Amino acid sequence: MDHTSAMYIGAGLAAIGVGLAALGVGNVFGSFLEGALRNPGAADGQQGRLFIGFAASELLGLIAFVVAILILFVVK
Amino acid sequence: MSAGKIDPMEQFKVEPVLGRHLDLFGYDVSFTNSALFMIVVFVLLAVFMAGGLKRQLVPGRWQVAAEDAVSFIDNMVTVNIGSGGKKFAPYIFSLFFFILFANLIGVLPLAILPGLHTFAVTSHITVTAVLAFLSFGIVLVVGFATHGLKFFSLFVPHGAPAWLMPVIIPVEFVSFMVRPFSLGLRLFVAMTAGHILLEVFGSFVVQGLNAGGALGPVVSVLSFVMIVGVSALELLVCAIQAYVFALLTSLYLHDAVHLH
């Protein structure tokens, strides 16, 4: 396998992490909605925590994206 | 990138506006499109606030918008920092609205007018990292000023058994030191990813039209529908990222003011 194709395959593998982070983000919002439907009165007070959880799980997907971009555009 | 393709990274290029590089002591200090759009953001924000500061007894729409903006930040600060948080409201306000305006100006589709290309200031890690390190520096200054060396007790969680300390303290220290990087990286990557996505689908539209045949226009139309959807998602992401940046900054300030 030559260098360029190995680079593209690596970038594709790194992009898997983005999809996995999508599972995490979906889980955060899904669980929030599940709880919020059981107790709608308490939902508004937890919005800050919702976004903290969203930010934490989204960050890992973004890092996977950065790795893919680094492989594509920075690694020679 | 082979010839004929549209380079999705070209939109992030920082160039001098007037096409001239200014040199000062070996550093390039030319007035770039990045600087231009930071000034545009600042002017828009200043106009928005100045227009809302009329203090009429019966507020008009503009004044209500400005008051809502202020009370939104005020609420975020009181909820997340708690007592003693009010004095950080101006900083959080500037942070949130600078990022929000910069994000929203970045996705304006003004590039259909020739020669006008809106530049997303927050799609550069130099800009977001400066904002993140500013927040981190304020946390450090406030923490050491109010608690002195007791600020280091931030790394010792309540109720953790003593034998766990050799593990917990390094982990807490690393997670503390990583904060400015994760804060800056999140905003920068989210904006960059969105803009690359829009550019890629945009290039699909152009290439589909150029390809002709039966399938070309179909690809173009589908890509265009996708652009509309992704643009709507981008507007949401712009607001969420600005909110998350301000929220995390106020949480870190809570740590500095109250130590857990």
UniProtKB/TrEMBL annotation, chain A:
UniProt keyword Transmembrane helix present: yes
Alphabetized UniProt keyword annotations: ATP synthesis, Cell membrane, CF(0), Hydrogen ion transport, Ion transport, Lipid-binding, Membrane, Transmembrane, Transmembrane helix, Transport
V-ATPase proteolipid subunit C-like domain sequence ranges: 9-71
Annotated site residues (Reversibly protonated during proton transport) in this chain: 58
Location within or outside the cell: Cell membrane; Membrane
Coiled coil: none
HAMAP family: ATP_synth_c_bact
NCBIfam families linked: PRK07558.1
Name under which the protein is recorded: ATP synthase subunit c
Organism annotation: Sphingomonas echinoides
Gene: atpE
UniProtKB/TrEMBL annotation, chain B:
Domain of life the protein comes from: Bacteria
UniProt entry tagged with the keyword rRNA-binding: no
Keyword Cell cycle: no
UniProt subcellular location: Cell membrane; Membrane
Pfam families referenced in this protein's UniProt entry, alphabetically: ATP-synt_A
Recorded topology in the membrane: Multi-pass membrane protein
Keywords: ATP synthesis, Cell membrane, CF(0), Hydrogen ion transport, Ion transport, Membrane, Transmembrane, Transmembrane helix, Transport
Membrane spanning stretches: 34-53, 91-113, 125-144, 151-171, 183-206, 218-244
NCBIfam families assigned: ATP_synt_6_or_A, PRK05815.2-4
General function of this protein: Key component of the proton channel; it plays a direct role in the translocation of protons across the membrane.
Family statement drawn from the similarity comment of this UniProt entry: Belongs to the ATPase A chain family.
Protein name stated in the entry: ATP synthase subunit a
Gene from which the chain derives: atpB
